Amino acid sequence: MSAPAIVHVMGWRSQQYGSFERFLVALASRCAEQGAHTHLVFPATPASLAFAHDVPAEVHVIPSPMRASDPRFALRLAGVLQRVGATHLHAHFGMDAYQAVATAALLAVPARYATKHIAPGSSRRSLSRTRHRWLAARVRTFFAVSHHVREQLLALGVPSEKVEVCYLGVDPAAYRRSQLVRAEVRGELGIVDGSRLVLTTSHLRPGKGMEMLPRVTADLVGAGMNVTVLAAGDGPLRRQLEREARRRGLGRERLRLVGVREDVPRLLAAADLFLFPASGAEGLPLGPLEALAAGAPVVATAVSDLATLLRGSALLVAPGDPAALVAACRRLLGDPQLADAMRRRGRELVVGRLNVARAVDVHAQYYLG
Length: 369
Fold this sequence. Notes:
The chain is α/β, with parallel strands linked by helices. The protein contains 15 helices and 13 strands. It has a seven-stranded parallel sheet with strand order 3-2-1-4-5-6-7, with helices on both faces. A six-stranded parallel sheet has the order 10-9-8-11-12-13, with helices on both faces.
């Protein structure tokens, strides 16, 4: 009997070696230990050479369909599924997911799965209810990355017995507090002694709350705080943020946009505070969990399951409220005892409950158990 061949269809561009990529590495490694081969289908070559080196999987590049009626993606994916002898298909994002599941069903790939990574919309115009029920009917299990996402799927009519909540989690070993790394990174970035480093890691796009960064930075500086706000990530809002920073008189010593970084764990080790200002639909944000694993105090908006998961481990505020973000940042930066307590509780939470190993166990059991 041939070895199982598990094909994951991503439908999104991998910009850095983040926690989702680490999940794929850990899952592919576990599957290999159990005699299965993993294949990853991306719309473009992953940006991280380290990820491509570490993941024990064959990577295939198939551009996403331009529209639902575009057959090219399905035809190329069918070729991959047939060539590798796919026994499992797991669809993850966007239009790619629907075409991937339909293609796998036509080719009689027996084990089909899907994951919903963001809260689904409910627009009738987008046929959200029909699309999600169609997808659920053609997969064995519909994974939801949070209870919030599960509730939204059930509201669309997806049967409860099809939905499995699985927090993807983070790898605690990849994120650690280190005074040596902290000193190295601050030296590389030119962060002067006495300045507090506030880090955020996110795509610079609407819904992530990044448009509030210039105001939050200016208000912290205006309140007499010696801070450098560092944004690691890129996206369509970059020029707007740069213009707004100049308008508010913020130089690079105050607000710095450093683009996509491969060394987020090192940046987190150097951070005095991690800021997560998202305001849009979120599945389960991994950035705040990475920060907690690295021992960085967290200020975050109470989106998705964060309000319950991070209670007592982070300061949480309502989405879209820059004044509340500023107040929470000032409180954590000004209270070392509170920051230390949250740092300890946050690390314990990630190691005990939000560890990537748990997610790998769940998926491997579904695939091969």
